[in-house]
Amino acid sequence: MKCNRVNIILTHRCNLNCKHCYMNASYNVGEDFNKIFLNTKQLLPTLLNNGINEIMFTGGECTTFPYIVELVKYAKDIGFNKVDIFTNGMILNKKLFDLVDACYLSIDGLEDSHNFIRGNKYSFKNLLQTLDYLHEIDKITYLQFTANNHNIDDLYDISKMLINYLNVRKV
Question: Which helix (H) or strand (E) holds 144?
């Protein structure tokens, strides 16, 4: 079986402080964004030439990467069949969301649980604004729920709530 999909971590920078984060992400990560951009731009044709035709940009938080829109445009321009992102939904970047084929978002419970786990009292509200926009533009959307002892009781209610967001294809 041949692999045709690759995830690229663009940054370890993140605008949240999630309790379960395996990336040890922080907003103050010192990264050379110009170098990462150029290296990624150089890598994409090589991946495509080796049979990789789907790509997902992720992080840390990929929407904090200053050249994310340019990379998505470039990947699409050179011929990737599918270009997706994985985001926490805190930043409503309409230009980015309009470009990608699908959005993968994290949700960690109803408002109180989600905000507690994410370490930000506005994260649930911002996520819902992002989901509203993705619904408005009928963007394919997938949600990841990381179950733990703080949110497991929210799983059923979250699933019911997401029925309202018809563009959410999978939780």
Answer: strand 140-144
